Amino acid sequence: VLIIVLGNSLFHLPFLRLLHRHDCHVIAHDTRMVNVYLALQGVDELKALMRKSIDAREQSNDVSIADQIANFDLLQNLGYGYIARLTKTLYMHTSLVRERIAKETGLTPKILFFPVYLHGIPDDLSAEARQAARTALGFSDDCFHVSTFGSVDYEYKQVDKVISAAAIVSSNNHSVCLHMVGPAHQVLAEKEKEQYNREGSLLRLDYVGRVTGEEYVQHMFATQLGVQLRSNPLLGISGSLSDLAAIGTPAIGSRGLCREIDAPEYIEEAPDNVTAEALATQIQQHLRTREEWRVLGKKRKEYVQHMSIEQYNKLLLEDFSNFVFLQATTRVR
Questions:
Q1: CB 69 within 8 A of CB 49
Q2: How far apart are CA 95 and CA 256, in angstroms?
């Protein structure tokens, strides 16, 4: 059995070509494969695919390929047809686009759970150790620390709503520090800091920028609340939300994201189209009701065991074994 992991990247083209030479099972890394399809088939073939797409019949055919790649809401086809024709099995970690891929290709993906894969989790996860981590990062003791992870995206990751929600919480006489751990547009970041980081304000915006793997874990561990939002299912699973769950940090996540990682109790759902006002209310609830680490730690341990890579490998190998057995019995017949 040959298993390959494919993503929507030109770097994956050598792996994609293996589909022509071997019987392969594909584990998809991304919800769309348009860039790969474009590289393999060319722009004319991709345009033709979009024109005959089932979903394209309900949209304008005048949308350019560049606009579709840039704006997920305009994407008329996910580009999985090429892979679906050649693979024995298509596995995905998100069910959010399962029906659409089945509709566009005729092949229904199998859904795997998204395992915990965060490395470098500290041995001591106690409240005291987290306080020490905040001190090491220079976090203020008189501030409630909220963090969001990944690129600072106002459109699909709704960082603007997170900022607005934090501002609402601070307007209710709560001191809030919002840390954005990931690359940001410098001009927009300076504009936001100029607006909020003024003297007398109870809100402080901290644009952390890119970090190392070790620094990423340190911020996850130190923050008192994570917030991960998504406005479009084509962005797929939030690895950061999974990491927050794995390290035992309470968080708020968009409903779809929470359900895709089978989130534990300390990861709270927010509506996919949550308003800044509603998000602020959820953040304030965490200010009032901070769960004891003794209770939260037990839930974290249960979650990590349930979503472990060992469990993932076991289920995947069982499925492959069933496939090989069916292939063998079919040949005997």
A1: no
A2: 10
Strand partners, 111: 92
230-242 in b/e form (b: 16+ CB < 10 A) is bbbbbbbbbbbbb
Widest CA span of the chain, in angstroms? Answer: 79
Strand arrangement of the beta sheet that strand 89-92 belongs to: 2-6, 24-28, 89-92, 110-111
Q: Which of the pair, 47 or 207, is modelled with greater confidence?
A: 207
Residues 6+ apart with CB under 8 A from 201: 170
Mean predicted confidence (pLDDT) in 112-134: 93
Residues contacting 136, CB < 8 A, separation 6+? 218, 222
pLDDT at 148 exceeding the cut of 60: yes
* Helix boundaries (H) for 158-274: 159-171, 186-196, 213-222, 239-247, 255-260
Question: Torsion-angle region of residue 146: left (phi > 0), alpha (psi -120 to 50) or beta?
Answer: beta
d(CA 26, CA 6): 7
In whole angstroms, give the CA distance from residue 116 to residue 306.
9
Please give the single-letter amino acid code of residue 209: G
